[in-house]
């Protein structure tokens, strides 16, 4: 009897609803009174599950964003590959089922306490209630805490099969200009979901600024200007990143835009931006600077004394255009641009047959590249030929794309995938191997679909040990998704569906990549070529194009890409547009408005010469001679590539001078492998090393002039024209002439010293 | 008996992996199947002409001698055989043959089957695995009448209010009386097997009880747990009176694993500190620490004679210690994931371990040999269209006093295992079954789930 009554009380779902607390007290009261009956009763089933929670919280929609916002699942904390302090969350939440499992079931009862939600370790850690390496990351009175508490109180339920997912986010406003008013501007982040709904997720998003010196953004999304300049502010939520462009204008009230002449679309885009930012462009450089600059950029070496003088003295008005045209058709151009491409695709030749990168294979590739550059093959065809190449590494040059990007006995589809994307699209897709790209739109689905283009790449031993046949096994299985091992058929980046099976997927890859309407391809190469001529990409680094690394001048990059497309991917025609612009031909000298500008191309940038260009220039200026191991006499630095009698895997630049001055070791496709920063060892090498002095002594420039009875003015003038492509100023001439006059005995040593000094000057080392 | 179990395992493996249904009954031999594989991949460097690492695989005799790294194969255990490890290494730099594609899976499976079959030299040849007798030898329990101590007039306490039912984190059955204890929020309930009646509640204000163990004579109940990352303790409760008799440990995190020695003199406990601490129940003093584990301690268990202590961790580490000295006896290496449960068979000859990697292993406690190894013991079936491995694994296991076992796992099944380690039957649960325990007569067992449900079931169908 008593038992039946008790049962009614204990099982609210059977009828009587009793508040839980009351129920507990009740039950204990009964216990004390009716203990004996209780012992006989079967009370095993617990109270009914929580049904009185105010608002249903979804794990994916509500709880995971809390981990994102509070930073729990970032790379330095529990988002690390192995988690932190024994607890792992997927980085920025790419694996919802995995996160749910780890929270609720990996260690049942450890992290979540549904019986006493506030005692959950998750919450205690988050508020710093117990020792936590990350300290207090959520305030106890915050909505974030309440979300977690509500979810746990509801029994920490998993989501039903389909939960609306975000499809995009928007940052409002997406463009802010701070002129006279410096009042902070609040922003909002709006997420759109698959069910068509929208939601303000400002409080769950993360904000950052690319250039806090111009504008800062706080955790609430309020943008505050801090100094003149431009920047982008980003908001991240779920797997999306969006940016807003911020301009903070200088307060120079007397600024008058002089309306300089634009020669073409490049100038128009650059000047529009400069006018907006109240920056005056520098005037055009003089002829001596121009001839040197354009020679170094296009042909990879200094102009000769004769070439400089005749250009400087040429009275023709269109001489710059003529010189550009001349150089674009020169052998030096072919050498230089073959060298650039060979560097990007890591051409190195060795003697270790199993790696398939024999010198003979490297030569075949190098000669093929050279031929294409000489023929001015349209860039889309040039690239497509390599991507789809099959055949022998010794005779089918472009097939070596699949040996040189590897430099190993084994072809790894994943590394080919990341190299292809970095090289041909400028996207670093490899981030998405283990998690969705944290700062771009690429997902793991994109990554594994992309890898599947390369899972069939095979190399079969040919008739001799050095020979390998490259081919694509179309029956190869696609790559498997990291999280659930789902097969991911080949799919282009951002593509809606997989490419057709049965034929070589590389064809579809090449067709998609080089299509005129694929912005990834045109922008990538337009930006890389621009960087080669201007010393800095519109996006920098050039091989890291992503939402969170926007171009410093978006319309400029658009214009460049469009120009490249419109030219039919004609390399020379495209370069000519840049070379003819006033932007390219501007002086490096600054004015008060552009002295701080390093991003908007208002003046020429000072660039140390690339290692191989520097060495060739040294040799050319001194009439010297410099050989390279494993190359015939007379080969210039620009004409050669790293060779070794052994394995190419660890082979670097292959020459000590080139290595010291930062020539790419071709160990990866990263543009950062080419270094033009100055180092102490470079300075020591130039000052005290053997290269400069040996070249001066070997070339005997001063000796030969003296043999022709040349006076100090002529000798010094010659040395200046050789090294700096300009005549000495009267002041330089008189000071250096005095040194010669003071000398005892033969002036050769003094001229050698003068030459040494000129070659050690920044003016020589830099392209300016 | 040992041999029978073995053959069954190896032939099953042969059937599954090689797919040659007709060859299923015969284990591969060195001369017939294995030497050709060695010839194809290994003999160039480990043959008659050259013996890198002093290893010569070209004859059965030279193979048995091993190389400079020790014996190449352990008959009966591929997982610990140097040769097998070398050809299956994940790291390209470590795998044999060097700088080449791995040996094809079919051949690897043949080698595995051959090692597991005891590396016979010729077809039908003898297995080199020593025969062993691990049959259950019944020991007389202190009480077999089922009239051991039960709660009598426990003080009544108010259990704290719960927002949701507390998952059954811990569950234990008395070996001498038909009662079991269930962890609740800050309390432990004791029930009777028959009729499920609640016999009493003992508070555990220190926090969440993570471990419950009855002493061998059923007179004491060990309750261990605490507050995560804050406090941990183990207490001993007198089953008759419900009074606290002792309390050991003052840990900085909740105790995750604990056990009481049969003579009631020692309590071993561990947790996130990666150290097993052994305390005296008489003085409360720490006697010694076992510091060999590299991850959180997840289970500890004293052998029925009290002479050995088994300890397990979250990384799959499993060690056997000598209780008296704290010296290590054996390291039982096989688990690849967190070990969730340890249980001794009543005669102390076998130790069972199981965990997240889905392995349920019964070890010979004398020499550490895995007498039976059930892989994927609780692996859920993959629904159609679902890719990847569903989280599986064993959550709990218990021995009956007859040497049978029951286990629960992430596939939401309760499984019963026979005296020879074979699966007998399974039953589905509605909720995730976290804990299980046998009644002293071995006729029923009790299962506790993640929604706080506790169900007593009969063993026989």
Task: Give an overview of the whole structure.
- The complex is a heterodimer of chains A (768) and B (461).
- With 768 residues, chain A is an alpha+beta fold.
- Chain A has five domains: 2-40, no CATH class; 59-153, no CATH class; 166-248, Immunoglobulin-like (Sandwich), CATH 2.60.40.1080; 265-329 and 519-607, no CATH class; 337-513, no CATH class.
- Chain A contains 30 helices and 17 strands.
- In chain A, the strands form six sheets. Chain A has a four-stranded mixed beta sheet with strand order 2-10-9-6. In chain A, strands 1-4-5 form a three-stranded antiparallel beta sheet, with no helix packed on it.
- The longest helix of chain A has 17 residues, at 359-375.
- Chain B is mainly beta and 461 residues long.
- Chain B folds into two domains: 2-116, no CATH class; 171-458, 7 Propeller (Methylamine Dehydrogenase, Chain H), CATH 2.130.10.
- Chain B has five helices and 27 strands.
- Chain B has a four-stranded antiparallel beta sheet, with no helix packed on it. Chain B has a four-stranded antiparallel beta sheet with strand order 5-6-7-8, with no helix packed on it.
- The longest helix of chain B is centred in the first third of the chain and has 17 residues, at 2-18.
- Residues 1-24 of chain B have low confidence and may be disordered.
- Chains A and B meet through helix 2, helix 3 and helix 6 of A and strand 4 of B.
């Amino acid at each position: 009897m008593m038992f039946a009554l008790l049962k009614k009380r204990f099982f609210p779902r059977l009828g009587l609803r009793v508040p839980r607390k009351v129920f507990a007290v009740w039950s204990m009261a009964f216990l004390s009174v009716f203990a004996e009956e209780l012992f006989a009763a079967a009370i095993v089933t617990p109270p009914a599950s929580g049904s009185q929670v105010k608002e249903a919280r979804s794990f994916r929609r509500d709880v995971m964003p809390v981990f994102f916002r509070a930073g729990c699942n970032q790379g330095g904390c529990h988002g690390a590959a192995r988690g932190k302090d024994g607890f792992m969350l997927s980085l920025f939440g790419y694996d919802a089922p995995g996160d749910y499992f780890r929270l609720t079931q990996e260690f049942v009862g450890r992290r979540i306490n549904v019986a006493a939600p506030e005692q959950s370790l998750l919450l205690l850690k988050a508020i710093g209630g117990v020792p936590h390496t990350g300290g207090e990351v959520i305030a106890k009175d915050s909505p974030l805490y309440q979300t977690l508490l509500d979810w746990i109180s509801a029994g920490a339920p998993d989501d039903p099969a389909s939960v609306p997912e975000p499809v995009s986010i928007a940052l409002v406003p997406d463009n802010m200009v701070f002129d006279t008013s410096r009042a902070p501007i609040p922003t909002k982040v709006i997420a759109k979901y698959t069910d068509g709904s929208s939601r303000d997720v400002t409080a769950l998003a993360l904000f950052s600024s690319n250039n806090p010196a111009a504008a800062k953004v706080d955790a609430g999304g309020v943008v505050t200007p801090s100094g003149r300049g431009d920047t982008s502010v980003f908001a991240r939520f779920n797997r999306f990143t969006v940016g807003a462009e911020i301009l903070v204008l200088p307060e120079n009230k007397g600024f008058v835009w002089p309306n300089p002449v634009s020669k073409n679309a490049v100038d128009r885009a650059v000047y529009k931006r400069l006018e907006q930012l109240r920056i005056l462009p520098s005037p055009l450089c003089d002829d001596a600077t121009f001839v040197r600059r354009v020679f170094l950029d296009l042909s990879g070496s200094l102009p000769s004394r004769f070439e400089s003088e005749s250009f400087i003295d040429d009275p023709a008005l269109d001489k710059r255009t003529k010189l550009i045209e001349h150089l674009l058709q020169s052998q030096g151009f072919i050498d230089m641009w073959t060298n650039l491409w060979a560097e990007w695709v890591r051409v190195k030749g060795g003697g270790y047959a199993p790696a398939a990168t024999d010198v003979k294979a490297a030569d075949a590739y190098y000669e093929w590249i050279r031929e294409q550059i000489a023929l001015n093959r349209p860039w889309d065809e040039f690239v497509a030929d390599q991507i789809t190449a099959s055949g022998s590494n010794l005779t089918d040059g472009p097939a070596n794309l699949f040996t040189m990007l590897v430099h190993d006995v084994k072809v790894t589809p994943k590394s080919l995938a990341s190299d292809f994307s970095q090289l041909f699209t400028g996207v670093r897709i490899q981030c998405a191997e283990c998690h969705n790209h944290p700062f771009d739109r690429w997902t793991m689905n994109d990554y594994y679909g992309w890898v599947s283009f390369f899972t069939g790449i095979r190399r079969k031993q040919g008739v001799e040990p050095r020979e390998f046949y490259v081919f694509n096994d179309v029956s190869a299985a696609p790559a498997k998704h990291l999280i659930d091992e789902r097969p991911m058929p080949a799919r282009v980046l951002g593509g809606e569906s997989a490419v057709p099976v049965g034929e070589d997927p590389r064809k579809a890859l090449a067709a998609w990549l080089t299509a005129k309407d694929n912005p990834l391809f045109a922008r990538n190469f337009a930006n890389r070529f621009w960087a080669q001529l201007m010393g800095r990409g519109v996006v920098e680094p050039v091989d890291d194009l992503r939402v969170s690394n926007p171009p410093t001048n978006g319309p400029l990059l658009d214009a460049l890409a469009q120009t490249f497309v419109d030219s039919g991917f004609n390399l020379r025609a495209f370069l000519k547009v840049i070379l003819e612009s006033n932007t390219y031909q501007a002086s490096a000298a600054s004015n008060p408005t552009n002295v701080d500008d390093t991003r908007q191309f208002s003046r020429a940038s000072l660039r140390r010469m690339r290692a191989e260009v520097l060495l060739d220039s040294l040799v050319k200026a001194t009439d010297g001679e410099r050989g390279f191991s494993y190359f015939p006499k007379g080969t210039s630095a620009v004409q050669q590539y790293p060779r070794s009698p052994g394995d190419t895997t660890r082979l670097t630049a292959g020459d000590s001078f080139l290595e010291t001055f930062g020539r790419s070791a071709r160990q990866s496709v990263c543009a950062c492998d080419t270094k033009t920063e100055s180092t102490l060892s470079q300075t020591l090498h130039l000052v005290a090393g053997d290269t400069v002095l040996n070249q001066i002594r070997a070339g005997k420039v001063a000796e030969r002039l003296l043999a022709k009875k040349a006076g100090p003015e002529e000798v010094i003038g010659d040395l200046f024209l050789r090294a700096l492509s300009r005549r000495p100023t009267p002041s330089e001439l008189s000071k250096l002439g005095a040194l010669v006059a003071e000398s005892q005995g033969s002036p050769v040593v003094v001229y050698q010293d003068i030459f040494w000094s000129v070659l050690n000057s920044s003016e020589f080392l830099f392209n300016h | 008996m040992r041999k029978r179990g073995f053959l069954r395992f190896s032939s099953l493996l042969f059937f599954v992996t090689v797919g040659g249904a007709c060859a299923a009954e015969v284990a591969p031999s060195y001369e017939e199947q294995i030497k050709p594989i060695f010839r194809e991949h290994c003999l160039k460097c480990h043959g008659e002409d050259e013996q890198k690492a002093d290893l010569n695989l070209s004859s059965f005799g030279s193979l048995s001698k091993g190389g400079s790294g020790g014996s190449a194969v352990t008959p009966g255990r591929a997982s610990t055989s140097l040769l097998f490890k070398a050809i299956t290494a994940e790291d390209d730099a470590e795998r044999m043959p060097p700088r080449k594609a791995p040996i094809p899976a079919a051949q690897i499976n043949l080698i595995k089957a051959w090692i597991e079959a005891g590396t016979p030299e010729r077809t039908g040849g003898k297995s080199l695995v020593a025969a062993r007798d691990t049959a259950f030898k019944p020991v007389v329990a202190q009480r077999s009448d089922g009239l051991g101590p039960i709660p009598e007039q426990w003080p009544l306490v108010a259990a704290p209010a719960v927002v949701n039912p507390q998952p059954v984190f811990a569950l234990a059955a008395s070996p001498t009386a038909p009662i079991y204890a269930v962890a609740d929020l800050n309390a432990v309930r004791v029930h009777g097997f028959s009729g499920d009646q609640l016999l009493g509640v003992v508070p555990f204000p220190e926090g969440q009880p993570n471990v419950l163990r009855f002493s061998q004579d059923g007179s004491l109940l060990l309750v261990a747990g605490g507050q995560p990352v804050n406090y941990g303790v183990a207490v001993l409760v007198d089953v008759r009176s419900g009074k606290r008799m002792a309390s050991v440990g003052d840990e900085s995190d909740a105790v995750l694993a604990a056990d009481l020695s049969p003579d009631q003199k020692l309590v071993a406990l561990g947790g996130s500190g990666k150290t097993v601490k052994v305390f005296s129940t008489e003085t409360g003093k720490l006697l010694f620490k076992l510091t060999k584990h590299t991850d959180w301690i997840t289970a500890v268990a004293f052998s029925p004679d009290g002479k050995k202590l088994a300890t397990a961790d979250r990384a799959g580490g499993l060690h056997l210690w000598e209780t008296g000295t704290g010296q290590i006896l054996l390291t039982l290496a096989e688990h690849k994931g967190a070990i969730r449960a340890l249980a001794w068979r009543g005669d102390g000859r076998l130790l069972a371990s199981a965990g997240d990697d889905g392995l349920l292993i019964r070890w010979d406690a004398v020499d550490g040999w895995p007498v039976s190894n059930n892989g994927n013991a609780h692996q859920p079936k993959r629904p159609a269209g679902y890719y990847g491995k569903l989280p599986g694994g064993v959550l709990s296991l218990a021995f009956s006093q007859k040497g049978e076992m029951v286990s629960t796992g992430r596939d939401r099944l309760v499984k019963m295992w026979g005296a020879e380690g074979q699966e007998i039957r399974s039953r589905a649960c509605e909720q995730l079954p976290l804990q299980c325990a046998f009644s002293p007569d071995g006729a029923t067992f009790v299962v506790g789930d993640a929604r706080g449900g506790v169900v007593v079931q009969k063993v026989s169908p």
